[in-house]
Design a protein that fits this description.
The protein is mainly α. It starts with 16 loop residues before the first helix and ends in a 5-residue tail after the last helix. Helices cover 73% and strands 0% of the residues. The longest helix is centred in the N-terminal third of the chain and has 58 residues. This is RINT1-LIKE PROTEIN MAG2.
């Protein structure tokens, strides 16, 4: 060593006791070099930190000096103007040469022009001062946050600091974040024009949170690992998965943790909840007033961290059960059930302490477990099923793939029912009424993001249902056997064939599966795709049978009439069932959603709802309309067929002109030519009454009566002359006809308006008839003739022959 270099050592009294102990120990001298390197590294880090703090202090002081100079200038300007104002408003001295009028004018000028300008300037100065103070406050808060984030990211500092100090720094950062957010909310409300300031602060906060949140999550995962989470799944897998008993002996690390470990976990859990609460507040502020509505409530981060490792552990077992999906659902349900009480008893109080509004740990745990299951179904299970279905479609036989698909859906529906019972088991009212909450706890939500899979399922359900209905339709006994029951709105029997019950039951099964879907859009779509096909198939079967009966005999024989009557009864029964269902709010909601899909209720440019003349009804409105049209069409055909037969048998009655001039034989109360027509009428009506339901039978005989009325009136107009004997004969014949229809109403003549009015005119005396017709419509109405016009009345008058 160079002799010129002099090393001065400190006195022994100046050394600390650790240093003396180190120098006196020969054992520690071997570690001197590493110890020196470590001290130099720490000194270098501290020097860098000190340089950074000095630089930041320098920039902060410069910024504050700039703001201070600007504020001083503004206050100097305001002081100068206030001095000028005081000099203008003070009374002038006695020696002043200004006249009183000049002083008064100057005051008006000051009060009217200069004072408002000065007030605006003072307000501007106050705004600048408030902006400067707010900016300085925000800069200080954000600086503290960035310091904490920088300190927690320093590896050497983390190495030589306790976990407690890291948690303390994180708590400090969260507190500063909360204070910063309070200031930003206040600025947004009071000074919405300061967007640049808010944007700059948000940008810096986002950078800090991008570091703080992943670090908190990483610490949380490390802590869970030290707790022994996730628990071993071997006990669950070895147990009987089909049993409904909870596995009490399953170890629960969250319940067994104690002491410092429990304190650290609770603090870390609270830190994550606080960060999420801050995130929610920031998003709420940033989206305030936004037209686009977004779902601000995210899954609880701390619960997700509990579920993720369990999900990964479960998937190793799921891969063995691709062909046995019931084991997958059983395992997920068992894990969910066995640990759900932990969420209520241990974690819910922590969430309540943070005041996270709208969060239930029970719901979040169940939702996260279901989400992990849905993710696995979407990635592994359904792609295999779709590939199997496509492979069998090439060979032309898809029965095995369809059975597997339906079995999987059955498992999903049963699983969802079990999960919903877990959610509601706590006895508190949960937010499951809206579709969003229900979707989170439903395994069927896998179809929400894959409408192609949804359409495949609906098609499989439709084909399966139609195949099961085919034997019921082909069995002729189901068309002849009547349903024993009463009307839903009365006491009369529908007389509907038993096949109607088979279709209703199958449709009910489709509706039950539809109820399991997590949102109304999917429910309405599924019901239209699968349920609508059932109704259409039912209507096609009815139409085919009616057309067969019409094609064979044109409904002239009783067998064909009975066959059509059965189909009409079946349509009436099915229509009434659908109408009763439509009174349920479930189907009304589906109908409203289906109307939105079709474009009803879309607002026009004026902001009003379009097509308001078409109220939104039930989802079955289209099917009900088709059934109504079918009934009306074939009820009308029954009436038309009966009317044609009556017309053919009554033509001779009107063609025989002589008997309108002769009296009836004493042994006859009606014309012989009308006997066959009335006998045919009674026979057809008896068959219709026996086989048709009473509601549609009323439509048949009323339609028939209207047709007979038109036939009789046209026949009256074709007769050349009416003598007194002809009028008497006509009166007797009409009394007999009215008597036939009197079995179904109290005033049958009311259903033959034209014939009744014509008979009234014929029965009048010559003078009364002349006065009635000449008096016009008013006079005719006074005499009870209201269904004939004047021209028709004049024709009848010309046909009446009075004997002198």
């Amino acid at each position: 060593m160079d002799a010129s270099i002099q090393i001065t050592l400190p006195p022994v009294s100046a050394l600390s006791s650790p240093a003396l102990s180190f120098l006196n120990s020969e054992q520690d001298l071997s570690r001197a070099r590493s110890f020196i390197d470590e001290l130099q590294s720490q000194c270098f880090d501290l020097d860098q930190t000190l340089i950074g703090l000095n630089s930041r202090l320098h920039s902060t002081l410069l910024s504050y000096a700039s703001f201070s100079d600007r504020i001083h200038l503004l206050f100097d300007d305001a002081t100068s103007k206030l001095t000028d104002l005081r000099s203008f408003t003070c009374p002038p001295p006695l020696s002043s040469s200004l006249s009183p009028s000049d002083g008064h004018g100057r005051k008006e000028e000051i009060l009217g022009e200069e004072l408002p300008v000065l007030a605006k300037e003072v307000a501007r100065v106050e705004t600048v001062r408030a902006y400067a103070e707010t900016a300085l406050k925000l800069d200080t808060l954000v600086g503290d946050i960035e310091d904490v984030v920088s300190s927690t990211m320093n590896k050497n500092l983390r190495k030589h600091s306790s976990t407690q100090s890291v948690e303390e720094m994180r708590v400090l950062a969260i507190e500063r974040l909360r204070q910063t957010e309070d200031v930003l909310i206040s600025v947004t409300v009071k000074h919405p024009q300061w967007t640049s300031l808010v944007s700059a602060v948000d940008h810096r906060i986002d950078r800090a949170l991008a570091t703080l949140r992943p670090q908190a999550i990483a610490d949380h995962r490390s802590l869970l690992g030290s707790l022994g989470w996730p628990p071993p799944l071997s006990t669950l897998i070895s147990a009987n998965l089909d049993t409904g008993k909870s596995t009490a002996e399953v170890s629960n690390p969250l319940f067994t943790m104690q002491g410092l470990l429990k304190q650290q976990y609770c603090e870390n859990f609270l830190a994550l909840c606080h960060l999420q609460e801050l995130q929610w507040r920031r998003k709420s502020r940033q989206l305030e007033g936004s037209i686009r509505k977004l779902a601000l409530q995210q899954p609880l981060w701390a619960i997700e961290e509990l579920v993720n490792p369990i999900s990964i552990a479960c998937q190793r077992h799921f891969s063995k059960w691709i062909d046995k999906p019931e084991f997958i659902f059983a395992l997920v349900y068992k894990i969910t059930r066995d640990y759900v009480n932990t969420m209520d008893e241990l974690l819910q109080p922590l969430v309540d302490e943070v005041r996270l509004v709208g969060y239930s740990c029970r719901e979040e745990w169940i939702s996260a477990m279901v989400t992990s299951l849905v993710t696995y179904l979407a990635k592994e299970i359904f792609p295999n099923y779709v590939a199997e279905l496509d492979g069998e479609s090439v060979s032309g036989d898809q029965s095995k793939a369809r059975v597997s698909w339906l079995h999987l859906v059955d498992l999903m529906i049963a699983f969802d029912k079990q999960i919903q019972s877990l959610v509601t088991h706590s006895g508190i009212s949960l937010s499951l009424q809206d579709d969003g909450s229900l979707q989170k706890i439903s395994s069927l939500s896998v179809f929400c993001d894959r409408p192609d899979w949804f359409d495949i399922w609906a098609e499989i359900e439709r084909n399966d249902t139609l195949e099961k209905l085919k034997p019921e339709v082909d069995d002729e006994r189901n068309w002849k056997t009547k349903i024993e029951g009463a009307l839903l709105s009365g006491f009369e029997s529908y007389k509907s064939p038993a096949v109607s019950t088979a279709f209703v039951q199958r449709l009910l099964l489709v509706i039950d599966r539809c109820r399991s879907l997590p949102n109304t859009l999917m429910r309405s779509r599924f019901l239209k795709m699968a349920g609508g096909s059932i109704t259409q198939r039912y209507l096609d079967c009815l139409l085919l049978r009616c057309q067969e009966a019409e094609g064979l005999t044109a409904l002239t024989d009783d067998n064909g009439l009975i066959k059509v009557a059965n189909c009409v009864n079946a349509a009436r029964y099915f229509e009434s069932v659908l109408k009763e269902w439509c009174e349920d709010t479930f189907f009304l909601e589906l109908g409203f959603d289906h109307s939105e899909q079709l474009g009803l209720g879309v607002k026009d440019s004026s902001g009003l709802e379009g097509r308001i003349d078409e109220p939104v009804g039930c989802i079955f409105d289209e099917e009900i309309k088709k059934l109504e049209n079918f009934r009306k069409e074939w009820v009308e055909k029954i009436s038309v067929v009966a009317l044609r037969g009556f017309d053919a048998r009554s033509r001779e009655y009107f063609k025989n002109r002589r008997h309108w001039q002769e009296k009836c034989e004493e042994s006859w109360t009606m014309s012989k030519n009308l006997v066959g027509a009335l006998d045919y009428l009674q026979g057809k009506m008896a068959v219709a009454e026996e086989n048709l339901n009473q509601i549609d039978f009323v439509g048949v005989w009323r339609s028939f009566a209207a047709g007979v009325d038109q036939l009789l009136f046209n026949g009256l107009m074709s007769i050349v002359k009416f003598h007194d004997a002809g009028v008497e004969r006509l009166n007797c014949d009409m009394d007999t006809l009215f008597g036939v229809f009197g079995a179904w109403c109290l005033r049958p003549e009311a259903f033959f308006p034209k014939t009744s009015d014509g008979l009234k005119l014929l029965k009048m005396s010559e003078k009364q008839l002349q006065d009635t017709v000449s008096g016009g419509g008013k006079r005719m109405k006074e005499n009870g003739v209201i269904h004939l016009n004047v021209a028709e009345a004049e024709k009848i008058q010309n046909k009446r022959v009075f004997m002198s």
